[in-house]
């Protein structure tokens, strides 16, 4: 598993969960970006390792469990990001959930959960970074 350093630069985390070529997305129930679909995730707690935060956030928002994640990328949001405007750069570490188990249900601040294939995402408000990551991962499946 690729590790990223515990750093104040990592503000939040996301967990990418894939089953049968479909991605688990949550509908954000609160601002910012209320109503938009994104990978499950949220803020990292003080002193919490980013990978541990991704595992926790996945479970809290969806009930899906994983014991291991693999680092994919870090996305930076700022005031110019329309779907997730931030007053200062917000660093979101993105992880792939390895062997996730359980049925997904909306919990915590998720209003709903969806399993969507990349081609189905166009019918929803999906953040640009999520769509880009999903397209890349879907392409990797076909390679």
UniProtKB/TrEMBL annotation:
Name the UniProt key words of this record, in alphabetical order.
Hydrolase
Q: Which GO terms describe its molecular function?
A: hydrolase activity
Q: Which InterPro entries does this chain map to?
A: Nudix_hydrolase (IPR020476), NUDIX_hydrolase-like_dom_sf (IPR015797), NUDIX_hydrolase_CS (IPR020084), NUDIX_hydrolase_dom (IPR000086)
The organism's place on the tree of life at top rank: Bacteria
Keyword Hydrolase part of the UniProt annotation: yes
Domain spans labelled Nudix hydrolase: 8-139
Q: Name one Pfam family in it.
A: NUDIX
Which Gene3D superfamilies does the protein's record reference?
A: Nucleoside Triphosphate Pyrophosphohydrolase
Xref: PROSITE patterns? NUDIX (PS51462), NUDIX_BOX (PS00893)
- Cofactor(s) listed in the protein's UniProt record: Mg(2+)
**Protein family membership:** Belongs to the Nudix hydrolase family.
Q: What is the protein name for this chain? A: ADP-ribose pyrophosphatase YjhB (NUDIX family)
């Amino acid at each position: 598993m690729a590790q990223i350093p515990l750093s104040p630069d990592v503000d939040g985390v996301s967990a990418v969960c894939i089953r049968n070529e479909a991605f688990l997305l949550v509908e954000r129930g609160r601002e910012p970006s209320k109503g938009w679909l994104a990978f499950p995730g949220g803020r990292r707690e003080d002193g919490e390792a980013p990978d541990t935060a991704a595992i926790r956030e996945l479970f809290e928002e969806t009930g899906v469990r994983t014991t291991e994640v693999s680092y994919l990328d870090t996305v930076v949001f700022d005031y110019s990001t329309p779907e997730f405007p931030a007053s200062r750069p917000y660093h979101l570490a993105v992880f792939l959930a390895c062997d996730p188990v359980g049925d997904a249900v909306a919990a915590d601040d998720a209003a709903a959960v969806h399993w969507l294939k990349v081609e189905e995402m166009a019918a929803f408000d999906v953040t640009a970074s999520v769509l880009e990551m999903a397209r890349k991962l879907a392409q990797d499946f076909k390679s």
